[in-house]
Amino acid sequence: QVRLVESGGGLVQPGGSLRLSCAASGTDFSISTGGSMGWYRRAPGTQGEAVAGRPGGGPTMYADSVKGRFTFTTDSTKRMIYLQMNNLKPEDTAVYYCNLKKSGADPDYWGQGTQVTVSS
Asked: For residue 79, is pLDDT > 90?
């Protein structure tokens, strides 16, 4: 069974950096058409938004709000998904979730979420 376990969240001052990690098990990183892997964030009272990720057969994509500040990477050998977050802003405060969808026919798998709080 696919499992995603996130870590790396915490409290950081504006302008600081964090790296989120997502350890995947029960699957490889082969993403086909309709699938994707990436990061999603949700602040209280919002529906959340996709932050960064890679669709099957496509390039990495970033939300406009984080472009140039966040970097999405994966390590297929270690089955890890990362989100390097630099120059953090208070608006980045949210619970961050790792997501994996193997294909259009497969369900979405989610991590438990990790809290990121950016505050002075």
From this structure: yes
